């Protein structure tokens, strides 16, 4: 008998499954590539200071130290490099913003996350930065497709993975276990991202999906190696190739690329880049975001052998490791979950 069936192997299911393994428990993962996955198209950025005014993100002091250790350890286990720790350079929009940020950087709560003593030389030939900029620290990006595919192979080798569209009607829930076809486990946790809207066990979840699109661009003679963010993020993928991420839309929630988003991203990239570029790829996806921007995590109130780990919104990479650990401790040690999260009602 397995300790847990995990349905869905995006970043949520991957991180949760590894959290079980780390704790000497045996997960069994069921997932499919026939349904869309936000993790396969995401930019993969983790950034402790976000938004126009660089606000410290929810639980930043816990999430960021935790995620570095988590992904580094997972790299060792998988023998694959997918974590790119890099500062995020943020050019100032005005002298006022420059002054504001220099003052803010002196505050204790921002000190671990800000570098105001930036070596501007590494950016000034490529990036429009007439007022200079700051760097956010403890930031970077994760190559999600690489991590997900590598973890999929790892699970398959251990016979802990089955590729199929989960058939909800085949799940049996008993007082002491759950059974799905011939697989028995102590519990089941659903990590289906946006596809959770088809899950009959959890209805009326407080989702507020947000579509996002990104383009990859080839930039003539570009040399900057950190992420740059102002309006959009420019993620260095390989020599001269950058990802421009991303748009937000709460309408037309399909997974198709659009001319409108491409035009918006090109415009924003032009505002940042001094050099010519051409678009070489475009991707679209839908974020499993929620109304209050907090994840949905917990056990079913009437069926405690059934759980959900979802609602990671636009921050799956930074939220998943720490919150999977909290969820694990909630299940096995009865530890409380962060009170802000959405628990299934
Ligand atoms: C354009 C864009 C840019 C983004 N950029 C970032 C970023 O820079 N940083 C960041 O942290 N986040 C980013 N995100 C958000 C990120 O993608 C999500 O937070 C994260 O991917 C959610 O992961 P998940 O595992 O919950 O869902 P998903 O990745 O969607 O995974 C769900 C998995 O479950 C499987 N599944 C669903 N139903 C079933 C079923 N019935 N049977 C079997 N399998 C099933 C699906 O096939 C899929 O593999 C971005 C999203 C988009 C769209």
The distinct bound ligands, ions and cofactors come out as: flavin-adenine dinucleotide
Shape: globular
* Unreliable segments of 5+ consecutive residues: none
Helix content: 25-40%
Terminal Cα span: 28 Å
CATH architecture of the largest domain: 3-Layer(bba) Sandwich
Overall pLDDT, averaged? 96
What string, H for helix and E for strand, traces the elements in order?
EHEEEEHEEHEHEEHEEEEEEEEHEEEH
Q: What fraction of residues sit in β-strands?
A: 25-35%
Topology, number of strands: 21
The helix/strand class is alpha+beta
Number of domains: 2
Organism: Raineya orbicola
Protein name: FAD dependent oxidoreductase
Domain FAD dependent oxidoreductase: 3-325
InterPro entries: FAD-dep_OxRdtase, FAD/NAD-bd_sf
How would you briefly describe this protein structure?
The protein is of the alpha+beta class and 345 residues long.
């Amino acid at each position: 008998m397995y300790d847990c069936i995990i349905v869905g192997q995006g970043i949520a299911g991957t991180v949760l499954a590894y959290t079980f393994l780390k704790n000497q428990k045996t997960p069994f993962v069921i997932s499919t590539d026939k349904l869309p996955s936000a993790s396969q198209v995401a930019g993969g950025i983790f950034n402790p200071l976000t938004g126009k005014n660089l606000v410290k993100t929810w639980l930043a002091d816990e999430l960021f130290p935790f995620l570095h250790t988590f992904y580094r350890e997972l790299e060792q286990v998988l023998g694959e490099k997918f974590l790119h720790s890099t500062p995020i350079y943020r050019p100032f929009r005005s002298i006022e913003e420059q002054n504001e940020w220099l003052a803010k950087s002196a505050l204790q709560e921002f000190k671990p996350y800000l570098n105001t003593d930036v070596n501007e030389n590494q950016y000034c030939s490529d990036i429009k930065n007439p007022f200079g900029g700051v760097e956010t620290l403890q930031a970077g990006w994760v190559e999600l497709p690489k991590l997900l595919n590598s973890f999929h192979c790892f699970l398959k080798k251990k016979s802990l993975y089955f590729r199929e569209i989960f058939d909800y009607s085949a799940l049996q829930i008993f007082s002491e276990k759950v059974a799905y076809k011939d697989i028995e486990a102590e519990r089941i946790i659903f990590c289906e991202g946006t596809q959770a809207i088809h899950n009959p066990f959890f209805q009326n979840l407080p989702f507020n999906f947000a579509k996002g699109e990104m383009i990859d661009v080839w930039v003539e003679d570009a040399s900057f190696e950190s992420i740059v963010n102002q309006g959009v993020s420019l993620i260095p993928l390989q020599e001269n190739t950058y990802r421009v991420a991303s748009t937000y839309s709460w309408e037309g929630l399909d997974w198709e690329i659009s001319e409108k988003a491409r035009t918006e991203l090109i415009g924003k990239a032009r505002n940042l880049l001094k050099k010519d570029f051409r678009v070489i790829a475009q991707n679209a996806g839908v974020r499993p975001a929620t109304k209050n921007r907090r994840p949905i995590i917990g056990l079913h109130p009437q069926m405690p052998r059934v759980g959900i780990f979802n609602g990671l919104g636009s921050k799956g990479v930074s939220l998943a490791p720490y919150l999977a650990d909290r969820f694990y401790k909630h299940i096995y040690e009865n530890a409380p979950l962060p009170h802000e999260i959405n628990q299934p009602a």
